[in-house]
Specification:
The structure holds 2 protein chains of 2 kinds.
Chain A lengths: L10 H27 L4 H27 L3 H7 L11 H9 L2 H32 L5 H13 L3 H13 L6 H25 L3 H9 L4 H30 L2 H6 L8 H10 L5 H29 L2 H4 L1
Helix pairs in contact in A: 2-13, 4-13, 5-8, 5-10, 6-8, 8-10, 9-10, 10-13, 12-13
Chain B lengths: L1 H22 L9 H7 L12 H21 L2 E2 L7 E2 L3 H7 L2 H40 L1 H16 L2 H11 L5 H8 L16 H13 L1 H13 L2 H9 L4 H12 L1 H17 L2 H6 L11 H10 L4 H34 L1
Antiparallel strand pairs in B: 1-2
The chains are: A mainly alpha, B mainly alpha.
Chain lengths: 310, 336
């Protein structure tokens, strides 16, 4: 705000004039900017261009929907771009029964859910020792976890496959749960350790003065404060594990244990499916993930950046 | 989410400052924090005990297998019986294996499709959404558009890959579309033709990847002080001038993060290749991870597969370290 020009009126008036002048200036600026922002056709051109790009992103989904409800005969006569001649749901039913979809849904849910909870727990314990406890050699430990997060699963898969067979865990949900708990918690430890590294010491000291043990401090002081961070991690671990493909593909070989993506890929690999069934299967397989997306959209789009600058 | 920790931190730092005066400098500086804890007398078990469950699991699932895989890369083994130690033979064989070189050449294509193109388009889209459309049409239309771009990122990539595989099939939607607009001459088996398979896989990867930089860059722009933009506008800077002089330098830290995470993802890519082409035709779309998988489980040549996986691991670690160094240097230069 600029200093008012010298004038001969009284002090109260000066203040009043200053305020109203400032107010007027602000109003002017606002209305000018509103005019500038909300006028002209250029903004519509840009909006339409970006919306068209967004629509282009959706084309595969639109095509999938269009063909998931088509009969094979309709598909072979009218092709993939036509509107379905009838609302055909047999493709969906066929795929549902063929892979025993409820079972796949259960497998995916159990694996992703258990991994999310276990990996958050392990991450918290690790990060407590590293970030709050400042154990010796913590830089090396964090670097190791970072490495674990970076290496390709191909560099682990054969030994894991071999050992799983040796101990009788091959083709069980448990082995996939254990592996992803560790892989996800490697990332979680890396992220949480830096969050807990800035944890307010005064809080910890106060609790210790009151005679709290470290175990109590973890659950009564640290846990409630970092809970929002932990719930973001939980959602991410769940969705990442849900979408995992390579290790489930290697480890889970029969219908009773396979997850949703592996079931679709192995059926498709057998080339047993016609185009409408492929689309129906893809549609059913995508629905849970799309539901998660709508529920967690805000967390996902915001949370994805959380690790970014930290 | 780091905000939350920071807010909590700020609140309590004030309080601890007050306490420090009362207790005569008990609020110790960062370097002495560890000692402070001891002086107030924690009488419970040492902190490293909390690392035991996570550490043991890490050794069993990651460190052990990683080391064993390196050992396997020095052997000849089909997965049954005893591995036979052969020294560096697998690595020597790799050097003259054209499929191996082809797969790494395709990794470069994946980096172009998953890092370079999405970062450039993402920068532009994020700044148009945030700096242009956000101001003119409000936040809700912008968040809908952002969500659409981000959608492929949260779906199982293999399922999306299967849909794309059908679209690009000879009897798929893409050829039907070309037919419909009178370009019959261009129809082909897009993923079966060695000339078009790789560009098509790259196209799908751009589609998969684009939402990630958009989301990261948009939230980065929220971090930037709007007064900088206002001042530039008052000085008469147009959109492009602001984009180049403000947007790009201000969100440099996020650009490094996107470059690092996407490059690692590009070097590791497996699912989309499996769903789209299985590395074919004639290895035109083969990548190291699929090559390793195929060698392990289809050719049962475990030692050779382990060598491919080990080389891939080394390359990823080297590239990651290089990008982190580059970032550290650029930050140092800015600070100076």
């Amino acid at each position: 705000m600029s200093i008012p020009a010298v004038d001969r009126t009284g002090p109260t008036e000066t203040v009043a004039t200053t305020i109203s002048a400032a107010q007027r200036r602000a109003d002017e600026r606002a209305s000018r900017s509103r005019d500038r922002f909300h006028r002209g056709t250029a903004r519509w051109v840009v909006l339409i261009a970006v919306a068209a790009a967004a629509l282009l992103m959706l084309v595969p989904f639109i095509l999938m929907l269009l063909n998931a409800f088509k009969s094979p005969a309709d598909y072979s006569t009218n092709g993939p771009l036509s509107w379905p001649t009838e609302f055909y749901t047999k493709g969906l039913v066929t795929y549902w029964n063929q892979v025993n979809y409820p079972e796949k849904l259960w497998n995916s849910t159990v694996i992703a859910g258990t991994v999310a909870v276990a990996a958050v727990l392990i991450s918290l314990l690790n990060a407590y020792a590293i970030g709050v406890g400042r154990v010796k050699g913590r830089l090396w430990i964090v670097a190791l976890f970072l490495l674990g997060n970076m290496i390709p699963q191909e560099a682990l898969v054969y030994p894991l496959y071999f050992f799983a067979k040796e101990v009788g865990l091959y083709n069980t949900k448990l082995v996939v749960i254990i592996i992803f708990t560790v892989i996800q918690s490697a990332f979680g430890t890396y992220l949480l350790a830096s969050v807990l590294g800035t944890f307010p010491k005064a809080l910890l000291e106060a609790a210790a003065l009151d005679g709290a043990t470290r175990w109590q401090i973890l659950w009564k002081i640290v846990f409630p404060i970092v809970r929002p961070t932990l719930s973001v991690l939980l959602i991410f671990f769940f969705i990442w594990t849900w979408n995992e493909f390579f290790i489930p593909l290697v480890m889970l070989i029969d219908n009773a244990t396979q997850t949703i993506p592996v079931a679709l890929a192995s059926l498709q690999g057998d080339r047993l499916m016609d185009a409408p069934t492929t689309n129906a299967g893809a549609l059913i397989s995508l629905i849970p993930a799309v539901i998660f997306f709508f529920i967690f959209q805000r967390t996902l789009t915001r949370g994805v950046t959380a690790g970014a600058v930290k | 989410m780091s905000d939350i920790a920071q807010v909590a931190d700020a609140g309590v730092t004030e309080r601890s400052g007050a306490k420090a005066t009362v207790r005569g400098g008990h609020g110790a500086p960062a370097a002495e924090r560890g000692r402070t804890n001891k002086s107030v007398g924690f009488s419970s078990r040492p902190y490293w005990l909390y690392l035991i469950p996570g550490g043991l699991l890490f050794v069993v699932v990651i460190l052990g297998p990683l080391v064993y895989n390196v050992y396997l890369s020095l052997t000849k083994w089909s997965g049954v019986g005893q591995p036979k130690f052969i020294g560096f033979d697998n690595y020597l064989k790799l050097l003259s294996d054209s499929v191996f070189w082809e797969s790494f050449k395709n990794s470069v294509a994946m980096i172009i499709a998953m890092v370079v193109i999405p970062t450039l388009i993402g920068l532009l889209l994020a700044s148009v959404l945030f700096d242009y459309l956000g101001k003119r049409f409000g936040g809700s239309s912008v968040s809908v558009l952002r969500a659409v771009f981000y959608l492929p990122q949260v779906l199982p990539v293999v399922v999306a890959g299967i849909v794309w595989g059908w679209i690009l099939r000879p009897d798929g939607a893409f050829n039907a579309f070309l037919d419909a607009i009178g370009l019959q001459g261009f129809t082909r088996d897009w993923l079966g033709d060695p000339n078009t398979a790789l560009p098509m896989v790259m196209l799908v990867m751009v589609w998969v990847q684009i939402g990630y930089p958009v989301v990261i860059f948009m939230s980065a722009l929220q971090r930037v002080d709007p007064e900088i933009y206002e001042a530039a506008e008052i000085d008469g800077a147009g959109y492009w001038a602001r984009f180049r002089a403000i947007t790009i330098p201000q969100i440099k830290p996020e650009t490094f993060v996107v470059a690092l995470t996407c490059t690692i993802a590009a070097l590791k890519v497996f699912g989309p290749i499996y769903a789209l082409t299985r590395g074919g035709p004639e290895n035109a779309t083969n990548v190291p991870s699929y090559f390793a998988y195929f060698t392990f489980f289809k050719k049962l040549n475990v030692g050779y597969g382990a060598a491919i996986a080990t080389v891939l691991t080394l390359i990823i670690v080297l590239v990651a370290v290089a990008i982190m160094r580059w970032q550290a240097n650029s930050e140092k230069k800015e600070a100076a």
